[in-house]
Amino acid sequence: MADTLFVAGETALVVAVPESEPVVGRWRERFDSSAACGVSAHVTVLYPFLPADRIDDRLLAELRELFAAHAPFEVRFDRCGRFPAVLYLAPEPAMPFTKLTEAVVARWPEAPPYGGQFDQIIPHLTVAETADPRIGDEIEADLLPRLPINTHADAVTLLVCDGLRWRAATTFPLGR
């Protein structure tokens, strides 16, 4: 999720990675705007998704069916990566996340990843939003000896923002 002020009615689709919290939690609390708004460690499938007022029972059923067509998968986070002003953990394999994003966008092309700001989908778990490379270096030095983090991705969660906080609206199991 981007370093921005969040808007009431925004939604996101994410894969939660609770196993990473002991490693990244303290850094996210300080340097990730989504953590300050109640979002746990995650890999984003799609942000922003559709406005909350478009989410109805039919759309939820479509999402449930879409995610049921994708099998759960094992993920390992064993290295850091960087975007301008972002330090993240890189998932391996990344392709299952990319396929989830592509499937949602194929069904709802009006909701491109990150509002269409970027040409390439790069799955990641944001740890810190900082333009200061020294802070990024400090965080990375702390994280690397504590990796890898292994997890089982078995669900996608729909988050909804009220303008101040994000809450989980529902969770869609993968493969069922």
TrEMBL record:
It comes from the Bacteria. InterPro entries: 2H_phosphoesterase_YjcG-like, Cyclic_Pdiesterase. This is 2'-5' RNA ligase.
